[in-house]
Design brief:
heterodimer, A: alpha+beta, Glutaredoxin, 7 strands, about 10% strand, elongated, B: about 150 residues, mainly alpha, de novo design (two linked rop proteins), two-stranded antiparallel sheet, about 75% helix
């Protein structure tokens, strides 16, 4: 070129255009980067939140705590040997589906630890959410008066779906008493006796005053345990108690 | 469409995140208990009622999914605006609001108990609904101005 060092008007224009385009491209890239960063930050926040919540739930539910519950007395409904090394108390409601789910597990445990464990069943009818909680508990207590509580409990849990929504399940319960070959007249009288009603009411009050708020609640040697997931987990807790010095 | 111009969308994402925290907490709580116990507290009465799952899937999980969708659609609107995303945003907001009202009436008239976590979710979905209305009105004004020009 003749006028070296100097640029023609056309070249200057070209240069300016290139600069402008580079700048625009840079801005575009920056904009894109911003977008990607925004998504990344949002994803990170969501994942962190999930992890944090999972941690929160886990740490709050794994603790078992010592509780002061009424000592086992003659009034209690028990199964197993008195003064056993391991005492398992269950607060339960015949209309509670979770109690029904745990019932076979408990029976399996009682069979496995026969002679080594004392099992105590305490009524905790959740009257606020289960309309047949009281009457079913009364049926259980009436069977207890004939020494057949645990058979009746099994029947009530097994047939829970049949009676839970009935306006009055009494006739079903009488049928169960017949099936179990109980003295039906006595059963019927005990089912509605004032003594039975008082016992159930007192049990409910006692459970609430002891701070119970859900069923089933298991107390293993005075420690309120987190409901174990399945037979194996439950068995391990009992083994640990048996192996304690 | 830049961040500052879309404060309603941005607020929606934030409110949806709060709702997401709430619903996800309940989902994890639900999944961590293989056998949910029966409880006398009113919140537990709601959370263990027959309405707490749909076809075995915890309702709270649907809530988490809903709020996550709102967050994603909001971010899409903020980063790469398209009309279809805006329509999707409106649809989600209306759906969430209507479904929340339905769940609220279930608690009031069928279960007869209120759960504070569920009430928080009603609040957040209502918030998203209101923000969506504000966004809708703003958009209408904008298009009117453009037409007048």
């Amino acid at each position: 070129m003749e006028n070296d060092g100097r640029l023609t008007k056309a070249q200057k224009r070209e240069l300016r255009k290139m600069e402008w385009m580079q700048k625009a491209e840079g801005e575009k890239k920056q904009e894109q980067f911003k977008k990607i960063a925004m998504w990344a930050v949002a994803a990170a926040i969501v994942i962190l939140a999930i992890a944090g919540l999972a941690f929160l739930v886990n740490s709050s539910s794994t603790s078992s705590q010592s509780v002061n519950v009424a000592k086992v007395s003659d009034k209690d409904i028990t199964n197993g040997v008195k003064n056993a090394k391991v005492t398992l108390i269950e607060y339960a409601d015949f209309q509670c589906p979770a109690c029904a789910t745990y019932a076979p597990t408990v029976n399996q445990l009682l069979a496995a630890y026969e002679g080594k464990i004392l099992f105590v069943y305490r009524f905790f009818p959740l009257t606020g959410i289960h309309k047949n909680a009281i009457i079913s508990a009364q049926a259980g207590y009436a069977a207890h008066k004939q020494g057949r509580f645990f058979e009746m409990a099994e029947t009530l849990y097994d047939s829970q779906k049949d009676w839970e929504n009935l306006p009055d399940p009494t006739s079903n319960f009488i049928d169960y008493a017949k099936q179990l070959k109980l003295d039906v007249n006595k059963f019927q009288a005990d089912l509605n006796s004032q003594d039975t009603k008082n016992f159930i009411k007192d049990s409910e009050r006692q459970a609430i005053s002891e701070g119970m708020n859900s069923t089933p609640t298991f107390i293993l040697n005075n420690v309120k345990i987190k409901n174990p997931n399945g037979y194996g987990a439950f068995k391990k807790l009992i083994d640990d108690e048996l192996n304690k010095e | 469409m830049s961040l500052t111009k879309n404060k309603f969308i941005l607020y929606s994402a934030v409110v949806a995140f709060l709702g997401f925290l709430d619903a996800t907490y309940l989902t994890i709580l639900h999944l961590s208990e293989t056998i949910p116990p029966c409880n006398i507290g009113s919140c537990e009465a709601v959370l263990t009622s027959q309405f707490s799952t749909i076809f075995g899937i915890p309702l709270a999980l649907f809530g988490s999914g809903f709020y996550l969708s709102v967050i994603i659609v909001s971010l899409l609107l903020l980063t790469s605006f398209r009309r279809v995303f805006l329509l999707l945003f409106y649809a989600l907001a209306v759906w969430g609001f209507v479904f929340s009202l339905f769940l609220l009436s279930l608690q009031a008239f069928v279960i007869h108990a209120f759960c504070q976590y569920c009430l928080i979710s009603v609040a957040t979905s209502t918030g998203i609904f209101i923000l969506a209305i504000l966004q809708f009105r703003k958009n209408k004004l904008l298009t009117k101005e453009e037409n007048n020009r």
